Fold this protein.
Amino acid sequence: MTCVICLNPGARVVSGGVWQEFHCPDCGSGRVSGELLNLMTLLNLELDIEPVRRWVLERRRSDPLPMMQVSDILLCRDARATESVLTQPNPL
Ligand SMILES: [Zn+2]
């Protein structure tokens, strides 16, 4: 399966039911809560790769498998922002 963060196809993703566990050669290992994943789908958000990787590195000092929760929503960005910059009509 592809990484939930960077979509690397070399990652291993385990669904734990209420969370997704990821082991990615680029992002490291951790978990994303199902609640956060649902909210991301609802709001059309995606995980922002660089901040998430920094977050994982930081958290892994004290937790081998840190979990991103709804309270970590600031690690997300608008999924449309990356793809529609060039195609969106100018609002003015
Ligand atoms: Zn990754």
User: Anything to note?
Assistant: The pocket of zinc ion is lined by residues 3, 5-6, 8, 11, 24, 26-27 (CB under 6 Å).
